[in-house]
Specification:
By secondary structure, this protein is an all-beta fold. Helix content is 0%, strand content 45%. It is built from no helices and 13 strands.
């Protein structure tokens, strides 16, 4: 959180709520001391508030989950939620089943993964994913830093992709940052799009025995 002069705001309360999941999905948010489908976090000296997403089980092979965030009130788990206000935002996660189908988490801090490589018995990876929004509030310049920590992989692991998609503009505004390490961060900056909705996806890529992905 930053003020109108782009200075970090510390000591502010940020509310996080899970919404939109299927009945068979069991998950929770973790703020470091409390877990549940709705938690609150106090911003630090850097103005940042972060939570960890834990997935215990998922409906079918995958489920779309939404994390709603507000600095005013506790966001509802169901019904409508206004994300056009500066005080609110929402981001999506794609929770992946054990079959390894589906793409990983996206948004302002979440986790998920692309299990890929199920034909070779590849393990379904576990992904912790965080997105820091460093965009200037008074300028239309998008600046996101996505940090990730991938575990539960095997020797078929090849790389991590962080895909940034502009929901408003579609395929005309998308970018991918890649790394061969299981821990790290990727920054994506543009001279526009700070006030638009972005979708971030973490893809964990395995290489099959036939050298295909």
């Amino acid at each position: 959180m930053r003020d109108r002069y782009n200075n970090p705001v510390s000591g502010a309360t940020v509310h996080f709520t899970l919404a939109g999941a299927e009945q068979g999905t069991s998950h929770e948010l973790d703020n470091g001391t409390t877990t549940g489908e709705a938690v609150q976090v106090t911003t630090g000296a850097d103005g940042q508030a972060s939570v960890t997403y834990h997935l215990d089980s998922v409906s079918g092979n995958g489920d779309d989950v939404t994390v709603r965030v507000s600095i005013d009130d506790i966001p509802p788990m169901g019904g409508s939620f206004d994300t056009d206000r500066k005080e609110t935002l929402a981001f999506s996660l794609a929770a992946v089943g054990q079959s390894g189908n589906g793409n990983g988490g996206n948004g302002d801090g979440g986790d998920g993964g692309d299990g890929g490589g199920g034909d070779d018995g590849a393990q379904t990876p576990q992904v912790e994913f965080r997105v820091d929004d460093l965009s200037h509030p008074n300028e239309d310049k998008m600046n996101y830093v996505a940090s990730y920590d991938v575990s539960n992989t095997n020797g078929s692991f090849e790389r991590v992709n962080v895909v940034y998609d502009n929901v408003n503009r579609g395929s005309s505004a998308t970018g991918t940052r890649s790394a061969t390490t299981m821990h790290g961060s990727q920054q994506y900056q543009l001279s526009y799009g700070a006030s638009e909705q972005w979708k971030m996806t973490v893809q964990v890529i395995y290489e099959r025995s036939d050298r295909t992905e």
